[in-house]
Amino acid sequence: MCKIRNRIKPLFGCNDLAKPGIIVLLQRRTNIMKNLQLITFLLLAPLFVSAQDLTINESLESMGKTERWCFSAKYPYKEDVAEAVMEKNIEKAGLERTSHKKGVNAYQGAVWNEISDSKCDYYYKTEGRKGKTTIYFSVSKGYDNYVTSSNDVGTSNRIKQYMLHLQDQMKTAVEIAAEEAKLKKMAEENKDAKAELEKAQKEQAEKEEKLKSLKRKQ
């Protein structure tokens, strides 16, 4: 037993390890290390929330009258929020809608640099239910040549990264809308308060004028 303990002799001797104080010190050190590991995990955990919570699927889906290979994901936000974020990104990318039929938005022969530097046909639709929205996103290199994880790893990975990023954009959009609503309410309350103040000042001025008039009559 003493030989085993001699391995840590630079820190403590064999007799020292038998002392209750040293044992308590070692236990505290172990607890501190465990706590540090827990704190590190908690600090890093938020970095992985989006990727862990969002599942991106690939499947053949009906888009209008056509079956298209799609990437899809369900977001915990209302449909109007999801559509607004998608349209904002499309506008920023400089794409022009070529058709809108039965809820399917098409952008054909377009270059979306974030996804591909080649001309592609882009299609998307949204389905909202109970405060959540599923986005179906399809990319074709022409006709039925749809991008999949099997035939184009690079482009499919960029599509997935884009769809992951959508969740953060929706979260930000909701937070901004809530802050704007809060500021609007404050402005309305301030407006009402200003009107009340002006009314009180006017009434006070009228009272003062009446007092002056009474004094002059006396």
Tell me what the structure shows.
- It is built from six helices and six strands, in the order ααααββαββββα.
- By secondary structure, it is α+β, with helices and mostly antiparallel strands.
- A six-stranded antiparallel sheet has the order 1-2-6-5-4-3, with helices on one face.
- A hairpin with a 2-residue loop joins strand 3 and strand 4 (104-112).
- The protein is elongated and about 100 Å long.
- The model is unreliable at 1-12 and 38-51 (pLDDT under 50).
Order of helices and strands: HHHHEEHEEEEH
Spans of at least 5 consecutive residues whose pLDDT stays below 50 are 1-12, 38-51
* Number of extended strands: 6
Number of domains as seen in the coordinates: 2
Q: How large, in whole angstroms, is the Cα Rg?
A: 33 Å
Tell me the CATH topology of the largest domain: TATA-Binding Protein
Mean pLDDT: 80
The helicity comes to 40-55%
